[in-house]
Specification:
By secondary structure, this protein is an alpha/beta fold. The chain contains 19 helices and 20 strands. It folds into two domains: 23-216, 3-Layer(aba) Sandwich (Rossmann fold), CATH 3.40.50.10260; 225-489, UDP-N-acetylmuramoyl-L-alanine:D-glutamate ligase (3-Layer(aba) Sandwich). Strand 17 (395-398) and strand 18 form a beta hairpin. The two termini are 21 Å apart. The relative contact order is 0.10. The model has no long low-confidence stretch (mean pLDDT 96). The structure holds ligand NPW, adenosine-5'-diphosphate and potassium ion.
């Protein structure tokens, strides 16, 4: 899993590297050289470029880049924004060095002062130092970049708060973002991810032990993280594990079947749907591999059934009624992973939860659980996922187009999935996959993150065959089964 950093951690990494003997000027030089290499490779016919530079160190990167590109025969024009008397020593030196080059430098007070007609722009206005709303020329330049053919953002697009992905002013769509030292958390959250273009991470020589020592708090989970060992030849269904899924109330029985089929496709040994007497009769007919028990109408069987399972899921297609409450109450004392989804999430208010609990709200459910609004959840999803975890003392899986998994200490950001998943039943499939990943790895946020990633990866593979529009959760389950030969190693 790829570690992601926030501004404080990046500053600490820079600081310790400088203390270790590499100067701030050298770090800037490495950042700018990496950016120049990427731009020249990405735009091989580049003959001229305009660089928008601020007076912080992000601007310093832009000034160094102008000099390096000039040396490589690219005509560079720098537009400098801000009070130059506030420049750091490194940035000032880079500005002074431009006097020995043919780079043109224009101090910019208003966007109307932009004279160059270059197609390619570099945004080196603000980096991880952005800490307030963009106003005046800072906002106007972002609007100006909206109309440029190709914009490379240095470190982060200057409208993005790098810790949260929040927009601090007008936005533009970058062709690529060239980030320095380590990828910044905010670049992986929507809607920033859709605007930052391709992401290039430039190694500026931060020693590995310093990078490890800052203590990462966020990770990106990718399909390359999904590889796992093949099962031994003497494997049996008891070892594969038992999943109990409670739900499938009349009219919404399909949700429990989808979760059950996904759990089987994920590798569970035995899957039982605990449901109403009425639904129970139909489950085996719909999918013979699924077992069923009328637990929602047979209170006396609940305790035994919970004891038999290795992972319990409560919620897919569950009507939030008294029978559901009784199950939740009985599950509170079990010491095994319990996933609370869909219908169960409506019953959590003022209720003590099982000790090993995963909750899987979509933004609407998250807003209900946090007594907030969908807009607030989506505006600050990292914060919402953390609050959910802390409030319910559970691993929170906040399902969005970039699902977040948070255990109150670490956050994982998923990188897979596509808009074809915007269809009813996809969440039920995720719940089934989550159950099997917990069977395989135990109760950890990392296991939940892999389940979310596997769900999205299967959807990405499925859409190659079926297209995004009209993707059926059953197609995803089929794709998941076909993934195993690729994901299992000796
Ligand atoms: N350190 C190193 O060794 C390396 C650093 N590197 C590079 O440095 C970048 C970080 O540099 P940085 O810390 O100087 O911050 P930066 O983002 O340039 O902002 C500067 C100042 O802008 C201001 N400001 C904030 N918000 C504003 C707003 N809305 N509108 C207007 N002004 C606003 C605020 O100053 P204030 O006005 O509050 O005094 C802030 O301090 C980093 O992203 C990377 O590119 C790499 O070269 C690798 C080596
Ligand atoms: N645009 C998208 N990109 C990636 N994943 C998506 C997208 N839209 C939906 N999903 C995923 O699909 C699932 C939908 O879950 P949910 O809203 O609970 O559906 P349901 O309750 O109908 O089963 C979640 O895992 C979510 O992350
Ligand atoms: K920038």
């Amino acid at each position: 899993m790829k570690p992601l950093v926030n501004a404080e951690q990046m500053r600490e990494m820079d600081r310790r590297t400088i203390v270790g003997g590499i100067s701030g000027f050298d770090l800037m030089e490495r950042a700018a050289t990496g950016a120049a290499d990427f731009i020249c490779k990405d735009s091989p016919d580049l003959s001229s470029i305009s660089i928008l530079a601020g007076v912080g160190n992000n601007g310093g990167d832009g000034l160094a880049l102008a000099r390096i590109l000039d040396k490589r025969g690219v005509r560079a024009h720098v537009f400098l924004v801000g009070d130059a008397s506030r420049m750091s020593a490194e940035s000032r030196r880079n500005l002074e060095l431009l006097a020995q080059t043919s780079v043109e430098v224009t101090r910019l007070d208003a966007v109307s002062g932009i004279t160059a007609e270059n197609e390619v722009w570099v945004d080196a206005l603000l980096g991880i130092g952005l800490d307030r709303e963009l106003k005046g020329i800072y906002a106007d330049t972002m609007t100006f970049l909206q109309n440029q053919a190709r914009v490379y953002a240095l470190d982060v697009p200057s409208f993005v708060q790098s810790d949260t992905g929040a927009f601090m002013g007008p936005t533009y769509r970058a062709h690529a973002t060239i980030t320095f030292g380590a990828p910044k958390v905010g670049l992986f959250l929507e809607p920033t991810r859709g605007l930052r273009g391709e992401l290039e991470v430039v190694d500026i020589g931060i020693p590995g032990d310093i990078a490890d020592d800052v203590g990462h708090r966020a990770y990106l989970v990718e399909s390359s993280d999904l590889v796992r060992p093949r099962r031994p030849a003497d494997f049996h269904k008891g070892r594969a594990g038992r999943v109990l899924i409670i739900g499938g109330s009349p009219g919404i029985v399909g949700a429990s079947v989808l979760a059950g089929k996904a759990a089987l496709a994920g590798g569970a040994g035995l899957v039982t749907i605990g449901t109403t007497r009425e639904s129970s009769a139909s489950i085996g007919l719909v999918h013979p591999t699924l077992l069923s028990k009328p637990l929602l109408d047979a209170e006396d069987q609940i305790e035994h059934s919970l004891a038999e399972a290795d992972v319990v899921v409560i919620g897919p297609g569950l009507a939030p009624n008294d029978a559901a409450l009784k199950i939740l109450e009985a599950a509170r004392v079990v010491s095994k992973p319990v996933i609370l989804d869909a219908g169960a999430l409506h019953l959590l208010k003022d209720r003590a939860l099982p000790s090993m609990c995963v909750i899987t709200p979509h933004p609407g459910e998250a807003a209900m659980l946090l007594e907030s609004s969908v807009e607030e959840v989506l505006a600050a999803p990292l914060e919402a996922a953390r609050k959910l975890s802390l409030k319910f003392n559970a691993i929170a899986v906040l399902k969005t187009s970039r699902t977040l998994i948070d255990d109150g200490r670490l956050t994982y950001i998923n990188s897979t999935g596509n808009p074809g998943m915007a269809v009813g039943g996809m969440g039920d499939v995720l719940t089934g996959i989550l159950a099997t990943q917990l069977l395989e790895e135990g109760f950890t946020a990392e296991a939940c993150a892999k389940a979310v990633c596997l769900h999205g990866h299967a959807a990405d593979v499925a859409t190659k065959n079926f297209g995004e529009r009209g993707l059926d959760p059953l197609d995803l389950i089929e794709a998941l089964k076909r993934l195993w030969p690729e994901l299992e190693v000796q």
